[in-house]
């Protein structure tokens, strides 16, 4: 089994180092070995080759069983033509290349880190543990036609029955393994694409009688995430709404430094932290490597069925958190702050 | 001067009664008189006439200088054909009829009500006082073509230069009267319509050198509203993003019962509470009439230039809040809860 490792920009390389440290330790302990090949993506690739997703990286990704990504982008590359930015030319192009239509974004508030959350203790009376299942390959991101002139511009938010069915099944299967509830988010009171979305989700739900289905308008969902995030288990939604709501969900956790994500397609999957490249703290040993390490755990479990190894990694993370070890992003006043690599060592 | 009063459904009629009580008192005190004519809208109109925006109401609205709306909708009318629902056939149709392209949604957290906010005291270290300026007449809500079949559905998110210019000017003018900052929210890294949006906003900004302009992606804005709402003064955004972000902003305030809104067009404007019809508490004297009363104040100020009268109403609201009077939605444990009409009387 082979993985492509793409550290990318900003804090990407340093948190990736820690994830690989953890991978090697885990390989030792559970006696398996993944072949690792590193590649360039994003700004790092632009600087070296002129393109955010060089042909070589494309080949590498397509020839691997899974891709572990760090993070991409930074002010240095913000003013390039859109197709050449790390975000569009790198990340979005890679998603497209691998036909990744499923995006799983868990948001979990650790008991010990409740104080990092912007929400008040009253709202956090239980454990926030929700999963956004976002459709990642269609909708308004890629829908045609698009047009841009100086006088007028438009985008097309489009879904087919099949596209909605595919992602809906993913959400219901996830809910079965979790607390058995799917909240499908749309704007069916206004949008045609949402009306089809809702209709198809209701049909798919019939295959999962043990899962409760609830519908919520996106404006209300944005409100409910703040007022009562505990009501959510699995949030199923479209590409654009998922972009917005998963970021809002991540905010509940206070730091993005703890949140992994997975993007799955038919074959090759991509795993990356939910947060960005944080250029302001890059290279200073301040970054929290946990999101990258938990992305590794998701990869081991989902792409390689190494459930035990993934569980061991998650337990190690739980333990360092319970033991009070903190990088700057999750520290509160008076806490001792440790470095990226110390956090990696401890885990 | 004439106003159309449309109480609508749920708590609409009872909070409207209180607003009219306050209006009459204000008329006495400031010696002016508005002609009031009541009309039907939403579910109440469906029950009486079969249509959520009967011809008579359309005529009434078009013949008035301003419309004061209560709230619309409820489970009873949820399963009608979309064009006949209170929301689409009533509210959206009325917005269209009056060509209301500006939606102003203030979100203010009162010092005394900080505990009603879902955000922690740490985040609320200052006063949240932001205004969403939402484009209300175009974008994906009304963009053509739209299509809905059983196999495929789409919507068109479209903006013209002129439409963006119009709403951008409104936002900058508002910012000049406030703290001088506009945060324009888009998804210009992905959407063509957002690219034009950003371009035009940058151009319009040149007319307002005293206002600071900042751009933010909608996913990040959803996150920042939770992590640090104090950074915002005026949020300028499109119809769909404004729908989502203004609801999230409203959530910061804990209760929707305090938030008014105004929808302005070339001539006749519409004023309504930010919250919904709350059918669960309707008719029980539990609703908070303040959002309706502050909507009245916005109307007096904006449509009739009765600035003093509006200020007097706002001061009266501030005072009852400072004096500790609470309806259920803004009460904390131990507070004495007063009724809708007592709150109206006090104000
Ligand atoms: C970088 C950007 C194109 C991307 C998206 O909108 O999908 C990001 O916000 C994300 O959510 O992964
Ligand atoms: C009722 C609905 C059509 C409406 C909208 O989406 O504009 C509402 O959510 C609002 O924000 O006023």
Structure overview:
Chains A, B: Its cofactor is Mg(2+); Mn(2+). Chains A, B: Its EC number is 1.1.1.85. Chains A, B: Mg(2+) binds at residues 219, 243, 247. The structure is a homodimer of 347-residue chains. By secondary structure, chain A is an alpha/beta fold. Chain A folds into 2 domains: 1-101 and 260-347, Isopropylmalate Dehydrogenase (3-Layer(aba) Sandwich); 118-252, Isopropylmalate Dehydrogenase, CATH 3.40.718.10. In chain A, 40% of the residues lie in helices and 20% in strands. Chain A is built from 11 helices and 12 strands. Chain A has helices at residues 12-30, 42-49, 55-62, 86-97, 161-177, 192-205, 218-227, 239-252, 290-304, 307-322, 340-346; strands spanning 2-8, 35-38, 66-71, 102-108, 129-135, 147-148, 152-160, 181-186, 212-217, 234-237, 260-264, 269-273. In chain A, the strands form 2 sheets. Chain A has a 10-stranded mixed β-sheet with strand order 2-1-3-12-11-4-5-10-8-9, sandwiched between helices. A two-stranded antiparallel ribbon of chain A has the order 6-7. In chain A, strand 8, helix 6 and strand 9 (212-217) form a beta-alpha-beta unit. In chain A, helix 1 (12-30) crosses helix 9 (290-304), helix 1 packs parallel to helix 11 (340-346) and helix 7 (218-227) packs parallel to helix 8. Chain A is globular, with a radius of gyration of 20 Å. The two termini of chain A are 24 Å apart. The mean pLDDT of chain A is 96. At the A-B interface, helix 4, strand 6, strand 7, helix 6 and helix 7 of A face helix 4, strand 6, strand 7, helix 6 and helix 7 of B. Strand 7 (152-160) of chain A pairs antiparallel with strand 7 of chain B. Bound molecules: 3-isopropylmalic acid (2 copies). One 3-isopropylmalic acid sits between chains A (87, 91-92, 243) and B (189-190, 219).
């Amino acid at each position: 089994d082979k993985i492509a490792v793409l550290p990318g920009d900003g804090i990407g390389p340093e948190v990736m180092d820690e994830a690989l440290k953890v991978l090697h330790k885990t390989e030792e302990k559970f006696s398996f070995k993944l072949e690792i090949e590193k590649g360039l993506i994003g700004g790092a690739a632009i600087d070296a080759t002129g393109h955010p997703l060089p042909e070589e990286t494309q080949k590498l990704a397509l020839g691997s069983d899974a891709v572990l990504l760090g993070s991409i982008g930074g002010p240095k590359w913000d003013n390039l033509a859109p197709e050449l930015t790390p975000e569009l030319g790198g990340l979005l192009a890679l998603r497209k290349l691998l036909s990744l239509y499923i995006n799983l974004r868990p948001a979990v508030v650790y008991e010990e880190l409740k104080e990092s959350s912007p929400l008040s203790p009253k709202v956090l009376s239980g454990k926030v543990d929700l999963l956004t299942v976002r459709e990642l390959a269609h909708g308004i991101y890629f829908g045609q036609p698009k047009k841009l002139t100086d006088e007028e511009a438009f985008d097309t938010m489009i879904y087919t029955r099949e596209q909605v069915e595919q992602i809906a099944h993913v959400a219901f299967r996830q809910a079965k393994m979790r607390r058995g509830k799917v909240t499908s988010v749309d704007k069916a009171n206004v949008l045609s694409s949402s009306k089809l979305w809702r209709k198809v989700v209701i049909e798919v739900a019939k295959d999962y009688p043990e899962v409760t289905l609830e519908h919520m308008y996106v404006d209300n969902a944005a409100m409910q995430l703040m007022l009562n995030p505990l009501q959510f288990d699995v949030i199923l939604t479209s590409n654009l709404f998922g972009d917005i709501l998963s970021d809002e969900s991540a905010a509940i956790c206070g730091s993005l430094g703890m949140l992994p994500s997975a993007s799955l397609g038919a074959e090759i999957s991509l795993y990356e932290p939910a947060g960005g490249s944080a250029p302001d703290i890059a290279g200073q040993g301040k970054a929290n490597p946990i999101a990258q390490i938990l992305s590794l755990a998701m990869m081991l479990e989902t792409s390689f069925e190494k459930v035990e190894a993934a569980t061991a990694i998650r337990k190690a993370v739980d333990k360092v958190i319970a033991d009070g070890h903190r990088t700057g992003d999750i520290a509160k006043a008076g806490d001792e702050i440790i470095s990226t690599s110390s956090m990696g060592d401890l885990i």
